[in-house]
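Chapter summary example: a protein plus magnesium ion.
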Amino acid sequence: MNFYSTRTTDHDTGRDPGDTDLSTSSATSSATANEAFSREDHGLAKPLGSSVRHEHWPHVPAEPIAVIECDDVDIYYGDFRAVSAVTMAYGFNEITALIGPSGCGKSTVLRSLNRMNDLIPGARVTGKISYHGDDMYGPEVDAIEVRRRIGMVFQKPNPFPKSIYANIAYGPKVTGMRVSNMDDVVEEALTRAALWDEVKDKLKESAYGLSGGQQQRLCIARTIAVKPEVILMDEPCSALDPIATQRIEDLMSELRQDYTIIIVTHNMQQAARVADRTAFFTAKPSEDTGDRTGLLVEYDVTSKMFSNPSDKRTEDYISGRFG
Ligand SMILES: Nc1ncnc2c1ncn2[C@@H]1O[C@H](COP(=O)(O)OP(=O)(O)OP(=O)(O)O)[C@@H](O)[C@H]1O
Ligand SMILES: [Mg+2]
């Protein structure tokens, strides 16, 4: 099965069973990837001797088991190179945080991971971004299917001007998901997003009647409803108060058991609290043009990044001396 097929998903796990390849030509590599991704093999079910231990997640392997990989990725807006030479892998069922000063390209990188940048005129990616080993930007890949599998939650909660129920049902309907009972899909997504108890008696009411924190959880539920594998979040708590933020952080930690999560945050404590791995980006002005191009400085297990970073620029940033 591939990005062009009508697919069924495993309702219990939210995954396409045994199905990760993006193109028909990649069956072999995909089969290998599937093996590597089974829970037994990738280390969630048994301790990995060489793993770096991490307080949030006991089995963070020393190297991420890649769901998405960037290989020497540059991202341009027209002639402007916003991000340069990013090489990194995002680990299976891990939370990866992208941190760095404003304008260093965190959102640009995040949007490239589900081809959301395609929607920006003039935006283009060079290098390779792969999903389970297959080129996400390959000529035959359906970007809409990419975005179904790799969902996105934005900085400002953006529910549709519809009922709570309709917000969740919308995605499964427009993506043509085979659904035997939409009520169940809605309940499951809202439950997974820790919102069900608060909204179960007002499903037909407008989503705009919810608080900001509830709206953001609704947006997470809406993302989950189409059964993605990866959830991208761009500063999902920046518009929320500390209590709502804590709820989203708790939710992320729970969702990590079933999803790969990549989050952009300006909140260093948040990265330290929730992320298994953290990537620090900065922006370097070009000597010729003065344009500031983002680059990846350091990427490591979060506990190492925040206690003993390898690069002085990371240390300066996390200690508040820069940025
Ligand atoms: N749609 C766009 N068109 C042109 N340039 C853009 C666009 N979006 C971002 N840029 C530029 O790309 C660079 C990186 O921007 P980006 O928004 O990715 O940074 P960021 O790290 O997410 O910043 P912030 O922390 O402020 O959100 C900046 O120089 C920005 O001006
Ligand atoms: Mg941003």
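Key point: The chain is about 30% helix and 25% strand.
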